[in-house]
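Sample entry (237 residues):
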Amino acid sequence: MKGKLYGIGVGPGDPDLLTLKAVKILANADVVICPKGKQEEDSIALKIAREHIQPAAEIKALVFPMVYCQETLESHWRENISIIADALDKGKKVAFLTLGDPLLYSTYIYILKALMAADYTIETIPGVTSFSATASRANLPLAEGDETLTILPLIKEEERVKKAFDTSDNLVVLKVSHDPKGLAKRLREKGLQNSFVMISKCGHEDEKITRDIRDLEEEKVPYLSTVIIKKGGHNHG
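Predicted structure, serialized as C-alpha cells:
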C-alpha cells in the first residue's frame, strides 16, 4: 500500500505559529522532506519545525535551486519528485515542509501537481503566511471595510506593478529583494513613502521591522522580506 504525502506550511519563522495539525503529523511522519536553495545551506523550514519531528524520522534535505534556468530547475524537480515517490511507494508517511503556506508561491506546488498526476494520496496543511505574520507584528490591518488587497510579487514587468499600485487600496509586496530600490522609487512617486511597513525575517531571531524608506533605498534587503502598503495612510506605526 502506498504512503501519503503531507504538504506542511511551517509559517514564516516563529515555531509557535505551526498549527496543531502540523505538529501532530510531524510527530508521526516517517520521512521529512526539507527543501533548501543551495547544497551548502541549512533548511530554514527544518529549523522552524525540528522540535516537533519525531526522533525516528528520516530527514531528507533536497535542493530546489533558486535559478531562472528552466532546464536546471526541471532536472532538480524530477530528481526530487523521484526521491519522494520512492518513499511513498514504500508505504511511508512523508511530510514536505515549506515556509509560509504551501499553496502560495511555494516549491511544494510543483511537487503537488506532479504527484497528483501520478495518483498519489496527498493532504495539504495550511500555514501562516509571511504577510499575515507581518501584519500581526505591526498591528496593521491588511484590509478594512470594502478595501481591496493585492498580493504582488516584485517582478520586472513594470506594467503589472504599475497596475497593482493604481487599482488596489492595499498591497502586499513579496520577493522585495528582487528590486527594493525600484519599489522605493515607486513609493515616493505615489507619495506613499510614509504608508508602508517592511518586516525582514519575520519571527526569526534577527527580525527587523522598518517604516523608513531609506532601508529600501540604501540597505541590502534580505530575501525573507515582506512589505505592506496602506494607500489610505493608516500606517499604525
